[in-house]
Design brief:
Helix 2 runs parallel beside helix 9, helix 3 packs across helix 8 and helix 5 crosses helix 7. The chain has one domain. The longest helix is centred in the middle third of the chain and has 29 residues. It has 302 residues and is mainly alpha-helical.
């Protein structure tokens, strides 16, 4: 009998698409009046207040047990801050399509970094996935609209964009051990305020340069969605579904995000996706598939 689809399946698809829309919305806000750091500060401070209040109501405590886990969570908050700073400045300097496709490197970067740091073995499978993904990213870069003649104008945006998966890989490795002993909601309720504090310290001086009358209504709506829609509502939905189906199965659906965001940027922002970038996206997707394929060891004959 075929399995019935339910709300869990819907959330597995909906949540990555909501994160995809956040990338497009952030690009719109940053192109229509918001400076990168004020945008980031407002987003994280508001989300941290709301999410932490909800988490405290549910868990009744936000305490992270153990000195080692506390240090890991603090380090993860710093890495998440660096990740988000790279995200907004990359969006400001290049297209949402390019940034979105680079997001596809997340799983590969985590695997390669874990192998380089000795957390996991560097298998032929991991190495091959890294090579294929690197070729994909190269195609995404050289395939930007306008071709190589436009590359010099966007090179800094592309380089900053490449810092997004790298910082996320460090974040993932740091957050892994505490996640084994604490709920995702509690971890997130501590990481968000830490990230909000970090981006506020870094970007506080830029608040004076932000003219809050310049962003139009839609830019404010996109900011509110990025803060409450993704950092609060989508995360709560995702934590719920992960608790039902497990982290391994749910992680496959996260691959919808980069390619969904590229498609939405094309549809909603009118950005161009070149054929070479599409081929690059396919290369990145192929790297993801290679990294996730389970290789069965033949059973020896007795």
């Amino acid at each position: 009998m075929a399995r019935r689809y339910d709300s869990t399946d819907a959330i597995l698809v909906l949540a990555p698409l909501m994160w995809s829309l956040h990338i497009v919305g952030s690009k719109y806000s940053l192109s229509n009046g918001f400076l990168p750091m004020p945008f980031l500060i407002i987003r994280f401070v508001s989300a941290a207040v709301v999410f932490t209040a909800i988490a405290f109501f549910v868990d009744r405590t936000l305490r992270i047990e153990g000195r080692s886990d506390q240090l890991h969570v603090a380090g993860a908050a710093v890495m998440f801050a660096l990740n988000q700073i790279a995200f907004v400045f990359a969006l400001r300097a290049t297209t949402a399509v390019t940034v979105s496709l680079v997001f596809g490197l997340f799983p590969i970067t985590v695997g390669v970094l874990a192998a380089l740091l000795g957390r996991e073995a560097m298998t032929k499978q991991t190495f091959l996935a890294g090579v294929v993904s690197f070729i994909g990213v190269t195609l995404v870069v050289i395939g930007i609209p306008g071709g190589m003649s436009k590359l010099s104008g966007e090179i800094w945006g592309i380089l900053i964009a490449l810092c997004i998966p790298l910082s996320w890989a460090f974040f993932s490795l740091l957050i892994g051990p505490p996640m084994q002993r604490h709920t995702p909601m509690r971890i997130n309720a501590v990481v968000l305020p830490g990230t909000a504090l970090a981006v506020t310290v870094v970007g506080f001086s830029s608040l004076g340069n932000q003219d809050f009358a310049v962003p139009n209504t839609l830019a404010w709506i996109c900011l509110a969605y990025s803060a409450l829609g993704t950092l609060v509502i989508t995360n709560l939905l995702w934590f719920r579904v992960v608790g039902r189906v497990g982290a391994a199965k749910s992680s496959y659906f996260l691959n919808i995000q980069p390619f969904g965001a590229a498609l939405l940027a094309w549809l909603l922002l009118g950005e161009t996706i070149t054929l070479i970038q599409i081929l690059g996206g396919i290369g990145i997707a192929a790297g993801i598939v290679i990294s996730r394929v389970r290789i069965r060891t033949p059973t020896p004959l007795e």
